[in-house]
User: Which sequence fits this backbone?
């Protein structure tokens, strides 16, 4: 493990494979994979002021606003000041990036650039297990039994915003919000962009980049 604490972020639109890339980085380099979606689900489960606030938006099918997500994430990151970590799903807006600046300095930002048609296809084939956040893709990562979560046997659902008619608007919204975040990190010289249609082809380049920052625990081939 490197002596300096490494803080990294993976940016990418819905369906870009952020979660997969983060899991591989966490496994290969020993960074904690901190998912905003996971923290939000845990916050909902615990109740409390922020959890109740988030639930009000989710029950109405609305995006949880910046200030709620930011409070959830700042609380979690404050507990991890001395640890290596990798953020997935945060920051998504300039406001969130500025809040993150107030508590830490990022070393590395990875941006995944995936063609629109690829994203559209992936999202339209995506089904999730709501309680855990587990994601299945009906084309290349289907459940053992159609429509059923492998671990719990509970039914899978397709999010409203993963349905084909909603995907284009969702991707446009992401792009508009992410543009100033990407520009901010680019101006600081910490942004590294990777383009492609397959995570397996992008991964060796991501692995090489991280290897220059922190010693790997596992070789690239083990992933």
Assistant:
């Amino acid at each position: 493990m490197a002596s300096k604490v490494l803080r990294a972020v993976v940016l990418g639109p819905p369906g870009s494979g952020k979660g997969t890339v983060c899991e591989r980085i966490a496994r290969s380099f020993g960074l904690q994979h901190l998912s905003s979606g996971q923290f939000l689900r845990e916050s909902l489960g615990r109740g409390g002021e922020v959890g109740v606030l988030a639930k009000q938006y989710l029950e109405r099918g609305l995006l949880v606003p910046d200030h709620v997500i930011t409070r959830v994430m700042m609380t979690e990151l404050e507990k991890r000041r001395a640890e290596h970590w990798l953020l997935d799903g945060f920051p998504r807006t300039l406001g969130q990036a500025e809040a993150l600046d107030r508590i830490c300095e990022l070393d590395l930002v990875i941006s995944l650039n995936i063609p629109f048609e690829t994203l559209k296809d992936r999202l339209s084939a995506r089904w999730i297990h709501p309680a855990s956040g587990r994601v299945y893709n009906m084309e290349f990562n289907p459940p053992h039994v159609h429509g059923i979560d492998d671990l719990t046997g509970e039914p899978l659902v397709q999010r409203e915003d993963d349905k084909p008619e909603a995907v284009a608007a969702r991707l446009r919204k992401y792009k508009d919000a992410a543009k100033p975040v990407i520009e901010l990190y680019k101006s600081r010289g910490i942004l590294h962009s990777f383009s492609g249609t397959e995570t397996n082809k992008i991964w060796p380049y991501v692995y090489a980049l991280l290897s220059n920052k922190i010693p790997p625990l596992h070789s690239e081939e083990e992933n």
User: Anything to note?
Assistant: The longest helix spans residues 164-187. Residues 13 and 174 are 6 Å apart (CA to CA). The two ends are 19 Å apart (CA to CA). Strands lie at 7-11, 32-35, 85-88, 108-113, 126-129, 134-137, 191-195.
